[in-house]
Amino acid sequence: MIHFLFGELGYNALPFYSAIATVAASVVVLGAVVVVGSITWLRGWRALWSEWLTSVDHKRIGIMYVVVSFVMLARAVIEACVMRSQQAVAYDSPGFIPPEHFAQLFTTHGTIMIFFMAMPFLIGIYNFAMPLQLGARDVSFPVMNSISLGLTSAGAVLMMISLCLGKFSTGGWTGYPPYTELSFSPGVGVDYWIWALTLSSLGNTMTGINFAVTIYKKRAPGMTLFRMPLFCWTALCISILMIFAMPPLTVATLMLAMDRYLDMHFFTNALGGNMMNYVNMFWLFGHPEVYILILPAFGVYSETIATFSNKRLYGYTSLVWATVSIAVLSFTVWLHHFFTMGQDGSVNAVFGIATMLIAIPTGVKVYDWLLTMFRGRIRLSVPMLYASAFMILFVVGGATGVMLANPGFDYQVHNTLFLVAHFHNMLIPGLLFGMLSAYHYWFPKAFGFRLNEVWGRIIFACWTGGFLLAFMPLYIVGALGMPRRSQEFFEAVYQPYMYVALAGAALVFCALASMAIQLWTSIRNRDSLRVFAGDPWNGRTLEWSIAAPPPEYNFARIPKVDSVDAFYQAKQQRTAWRAPDEYFDIPLPANSPVGFLCCVSGGAFGFALTWHIWWAVVVSALVFFGSIVLRSFNRDTMRIVPSGEVQETEENWLLALSETPPVANEAMFTTANRGLVREPV
Amino acid sequence: MAYTVEGKGPSHIGIRMSNDAPPSHKEEARAQAEEALFGFWVFLMSDLIIFSMLFATYATMTHALAGGPGPKQLFDIHSAALETIALLLSSFTCGLATLYMRYDGSVKKTLLWFVVTLLLGAVFLSLELHDFIAMAAKGGVPSRSGWLSASWALIGTHGLHVTTGCIWLLIMFAQVAKFGLDPLVQTRFMRLALFWHFLDVVWIGIFSIVYLLGVIS
Questions:
Q1: Domain made up of B77-216: CATH architecture
Q2: For a Cys staple, A608 with which of A324, A520, A617, B124, CB 3.0–4.6 Å?
Q3: What is the ipTM of this complex?
C-alpha cells in the first residue's frame, strides 16, 4: 500500500547524505517558505492569481518567463562557484566534494543554464517585446503561450525538487547513453533529467509555433517582412529552429525513457542498441539550439546599437540574410560535436567546412554593427557597454570556434577545458550579455521606470571581468590538456590557473548579487526613475511609441507602417504620438487557468514518473488533457475593453506626455529623463 | 503616425466556411480560422520531424535483430494491407465530411461521414492491436531487440496518433451537440481533417518501409 501510494519515494530520498546537499535543499525549502509567507503577508494571493498566474497577456507571460530564468540563474551561478572552489583545491586532493556530487553539479549547472535560464530568458524577452514591435495586441495563441510557460516552469520546478528529494543525474547536460541507461545509472537522477527536459522542450516547441504564426499573421499593416525590426527577424528564425529542432530532443529523451522504463534497446550496449542514434538526435537538436540561444542576442544588439548610436541599422538587408543563413546552416553542422566518435575522416571534413562557413555570416553581422556605430552619436548606455564587450569577446570565441571546427585540432583538445572555455565564451558574452542588455533596455518599457544606471555599470564590470578571469585561464589549461569535469587533478601546472578562475567565479557571484541590489534600489527609487511618457532611449521601433508600462491592449489603434524604423520616422516627420480621431472597443483574450493547471499537472506528471507513482501519473495526465478539453468547450474566451476606458487611458497618457519635458541626449541617464528625449540636431 | 481602421485588415483568402453570420463577423472568423489553420500546419511540420526521427532510427536498426525474430516471422502482411485499406478509406470519408461541411452545410451528412471515419479508425486500431498481440505471442516484444524497440515505437506512435484522432472526433461530436456546426467548430473539424490526412501519409511510409521492405528482405 505504501509502495502504491509513494512509489520509489522513501525516507532515503531526503538529502541528508552530505552536508552540502542538506544545505542546498534547506535553501530551496526556505526560499519557498519565504516566498509563500511574504505573498500571504502581503495578501497577494488573489492578485497573483488573477493578474499573473491566469494571465494570457504576452507582456505578463514574458515577465514571468524572465522571473523563472532569474531564479534558475541564481542557482546555476552558485553551482558554478562551488565547482570552481572545488577545482581550486583539487590539486592532488579530493577537495570537499565527492566525485558523484561534483558530477551532479556540472549536470544541473549545464541543464539549468541551457534549458531553464537561457531559454526562458530569451523566450520571455521575445514574448514581451516582439508583439509590441510588430504592432500587435498579443501573440496568435495566447492560451497556448500560457501553457508553454506552464510546461517550462514545471520543468524548472522539477529541477528544484530534485535538490530536495533524491539525487540528480550525473550524466552531464547531454545525458549520453549508455551511461544514462538503467544498468549504469539506476537511480532517479536521469529520470528527473528526462522529464524536466521533455516538459520544457514541449513548451518550447509550442512557443516556436506561436511566435512563427504571430510573425507571419499579426504584423501591423504595411509592415512587410523586410520592414520588421531585426529583433523580430531573429524571433522568426529561432521559432523555425525551435519547430524543427525541439522534436529530435523530445524523441531522444523519450527513447531513453523507453529504454529505462520499458526495457527497450534503443541505446543500450546489448541486444542491438545503438548509442550513436542518441548522439545524432541529441545534436540534431543541440546544434540548432546553439543558434536558438545566440540569434536572440544578435537581435537585441541590432536594436540597441542602432538606438544608442542614433543611426539606422547599417546593412539591414545583409543582416537579415546573415541571420537566415545562420539559421539554415545550423542544421548542417551537428556532427562537429562528436568528431572523435569514429566516423570517416571525409565525413568530419564536410562537417568541419560547414562549421567554418558559419563564421562568414557572423562576420558580416559584426561589421554591420561596427558600421552602424561609425559616425553615430554613441551613448554608452548599459546595453551599449554590453554590445561593445560582446563584439570584442565574441570574435575571440568565434576564432576559437573556427579552431575547433578543424577536426585535427578538435582531436587534440577534445573533452578538455578548452572546449568549456569556448562555449562559455560564446554563451556569456553572446547570449547572456545580450539578454542582460535586453533586460536593461526594455525594463523601463515593462515597468515604467528605469533600472539604476550606476549598478548597471557595476554589474557589467563584474560580469565582464568575472568572465575574463574565469574562462581565459581555461583556454590555457585546456590547451595544456586538462580534462573537463575533473573533480580532482594531478598536474601542478594547472593549479595557478584554477585560482584565477576561482577569482573570476567570485566576481561573477558579485555580478549576481549586484543584480539583486540593482533591482532593489531601482524599485525603491522608482519614482525618480519613472518614464511614463514611454520613450526613454529615443527609440526607433513601435514599442517606444506607447506608454511605459504599456496598456494591456498595447495599441489604442493599430499603427500603419511604411518603413523599417517606423516610430523614429514618425518622430522625424512630427507625426508621432498623435491621438487617434476615434476610439473603438478592443477585444482581448480573457484570463484562463489552463496554463496554470497544465503547469501543476505537467510537473506532477514528471514527478510521478520519476518516482514510479503510477496512480499519480494517470491522475495528472487526466487533469492535463482534461483541462485542455474542457477549455475547448468554453466560448467565453474574449473580454472587451470598452472604448471609453481606452480613451481615458490614452488621454491620460497623452496629457502626461505633453507635460513631460524632453531631456537632452547627453542627460539620458540622469533622473531628468522622464521618458522623452530631445532629438539631437 | 497613421492608424488602420479596425476590422479592415488585409483580406484573407482560401478558407471557405458555410455560415449565416453577418459579413463583418464572417471576416473576423475567417481571419481567426486562417491563423489557427496555419498554426496547425506548422504543428504538423513539427510532428513530422518526430516521425522522421522514428523512421531514421528504424532504418539504422533494420539489422539489430540480436538473434531475435525478424520481420518475416512477425509481420502479417495481409493484416497490414487491411489496415492500409481501412485508413485510406477513412481519409476519403474524412474528405467527404469536410466537403459536406464546407459546401453543403448539412450537419447530418457531415456528421454521418465523420462517424464513418471514426468507425474506420476503430477498425484500423483493432487490427493493429491484433497485430501487436500476435507479434508478442511469437516472441516479438519490444524488449527483445533494438529492431523490435524501433518498430514498436514507430508503429505505436502512429497508433497513438490515430487514437488521439478518434478521441478528438468524439470530443468534436460533443461540440457539435453543444454548439452546432458554427465557425469555430468548423475550423476545429478542418484541423482534425488535416491531422487525419497527415496520419494517412505517415502510414503509407510505415506500410512501405516497415511492412513491405520487411517482408521482401
A1: Up-down Bundle (1.20)
A2: A617
A3: 0.94
